[in-house]
Each structure stands twice: as structure tokens, then as C-alpha cells.
Automatic annotation (TrEMBL):
Keywords, ordered alphabetically: Heme, Iron, Metal-binding, Signal
Cross-referenced InterPro entries: Cyt_c-like_dom (IPR009056), Cyt_c-like_dom_sf (IPR036909), Cytochrome_c-type_DH (IPR051459)
Protein name in the entry: Cytochrome C
Domain Cytochrome c: 73-161
Single GO MF descriptor: heme binding
Species of the source: Candidatus Raskinella chloraquaticus
Pfam families: Cytochrom_C (PF00034)
Signal peptide: 1-28
Length: 235
């Protein structure tokens, strides 16, 4: 396409915008009760989302299986797909390659100083795995997998985490029979009751210091604030 044509298209687009665009009400207009009474002014932008558009975005899968598409996939097929599409980052056995996240292992490590949170050790529901892979993986090529491929890869991830056997076939029907090891590790925040003993006294919220505070030193004297003249040079 020639430069001239590009320019022409650009100016045509601006012309169309100029015809459709109406400025939002000014502050003065917004403050004017007459304008308010008439309700917000329509500026002719946007349209109702088409049902197919909503359907394309509405892909979430819930723990009770709601949202799962029809389909199935075996651990065996998932192994092949995973090695081709995922292992370069997540490691052949889900142990991670380089500094990419690990997706298997870590069971029993959550209370350690360095907990390893993976699909197997941390995630409470298998549905999150399906949902996540469907919307976000493979990294850089998201939404490229078919539903059967996602079933297979999810089955393989569960297998790497010792949750299903080698000959398992994951389907829409048997999906909710999967119990994740850490499902009971999630519960409602109960600190208000369980940690009540930490908070024996009512915290003081007003006039808490009897004496007014005294300034003992200043940041400038302590030399904590870089000074362009005498302090360290900031690039
Ligand atoms: C190019 C590298 C790359 C490839 C290939 C890749 N991933 Fe990922 N994956 C990532 C990164 C980066 C994250 C973390 C993304 C984030 O936290 O926003 C991630 C996160 C994940 C997670 C969540 C991990 C967690 O515990 O938070 C899962 C599950 C996962 N990927 C599965 C897959 C699967 C299955 C494939 C193959 C279909 C795949 N990934 C391919 C880079 C990759």
C-alpha cells in the first residue's frame, strides 16, 4: 500500500471520528440541573456485545465442573503434547527449566521456609488447571489448544503430580471426581477468632501518647537524605 493511500485512509478515519464524536458534557453542564434531569447524554459510541463474542470470552471452568466443554484426553496423549509444547519452560517432569515456574512436585513443602507451590502441592481444584491452560498457555501462544488437547495435558499434569494413574483418561464426566491433595488447605479467613488471643487489649486509636512527641533529630542531620551538593551523586 502506498504512503499516499495510507495517509488518505488515516485522514478518512479521522474524518469519520470527527463526525461521530461529541464531547462529553463539560463540568458546567454536569452541574446544571436541567442537563442532569435529562440524564447522561448519549455519545453514540459502543454497541451491545454479540452473544458469540460473550461466548468466546466466557470460558471459565469452576470447581463443580460448570463451564467444562465436552471432550476428553489421556495421560499418554498429554505426555506427548506436554513434551512438545510445555517442557521447554516447565521441564520434562514439571520440575521447571531455568527460572520458569514448576508445575509438579513440592507436595508437603507448603510449611517449609521455601514452599514450592505447584498444581499438585497447592492448587485446590483441577478445574483451575484446565481453566488456566485454556486461557494462558502455552505462554506466548495462548488459546491455541483444542479442548481435547487441554483435557490431555491436564491429565498429564495430574499424573506428574501422582494424582491420577498412567492409563487415566480425563473426561468432562469424570472431571469432578478428581480430588486435589491441598483442597482442605483453603478455608475462610478465621483470624478474627483463632488469633483473638494476640489482641487482648483494645488498640488505642486516639490521643494515645500522654506526652506530645519530641523531635530528637532530623533526617538531614543524620545524613539519610541524599543532598545534591554534599550527598551521594544520583544518576
Ligand atoms: C515460553 C515458556 C512457557 C511455555 C512454553 C509454557 N509456559 Fe506455562 N508458564 C510460563 C510462565 C512464565 C508462567 C507464569 C505466568 C504468570 O505467573 O503470569 C507459566 C505458568 C504456568 C502454570 C501455572 C503455574 C503456577 O503454579 O502458577 C501452568 C499450570 C502452566 N504454565 C502450564 C503450561 C502448559 C500446560 C504449557 C504447555 C501447553 C505451558 N505452560 C507452556 C511459561 C511457559
Amino acid at each position: 500500500m502506498s504512503k499516499f493511500r495510507n495517509l488518505f485512509l488515516a485522514s478518512a478515519a479521522i474524518a469519520v471520528l470527527a463526525v461521530n464524536w461529541q464531547p462529553a458534557p463539560s463540568l458546567a453542564q454536569q452541574g446544571n440541573p436541567a442537563v442532569h434531569a435529562a440524564g447522561p447524554r448519549k455519545i453514540g459510541l459502543g454497541r451491545e456485545a454479540h452473544p458469540d463474542e460473550v461466548k468466546a470470552w466466557d470460558t471459565d471452568v469452576r470447581p463443580d465442573g460448570q463451564g467444562l466443554p465436552p471432550g476428553k484426553g489421556s495421560v499418554k496423549d498429554g505426555d506427548e503434547l506436554y513434551q512438545t509444547l510445555c517442557a521447554a519452560c516447565h521441564g520434562e517432569f514439571g520440575q521447571s527449566a531455568g527460572r520458569w515456574p514448576m508445575v509438579a512436585g513440592g507436595q508437603g513443602s507448603l510449611k517449609n521456609e521455601g514452599p514450592e507451590k505447584t498444581v499438585g502441592s497447592f492448587w485446590p481444584y483441577a478445574s483451575t488447571t484446565f481453566d488456566y491452560i485454556k486461557r494462558a498457555m502455552p505462554y506466548g501462544n495462548a488459546r491455541s489448544l483444542s479442548d481435547d488437547e487441554i483435557y490431555a495435558i491436564t491429565a498429564y499434569l495430574l499424573n506428574m503430580n501422582d494424582i491420577v494413574k498412567d492409563d487415566f483418561v480425563l473426561t468432562q464426566k469424570n472431571f469432578t471426581s478428581i480430588k486435589m491433595p491441598n483442597v482442605d488447605g483453603f478455608y475462610d479467613d478465621d483470624r478474627e477468632t483463632t488469633e483473638k488471643h494476640f489482641w487482648k487489649n483494645e488498640p488505642c486509636m486516639t490521643n494515645c501518647k500522654a506526652e506530645p512527641p519530641k523531635v530528637l533529630s532530623r533526617a538531614r542531620t543524620l545524613d539519610v537524605t541524599p543532598d545534591t551538593k554534599t550527598g551521594p551523586k544520583v544518576d
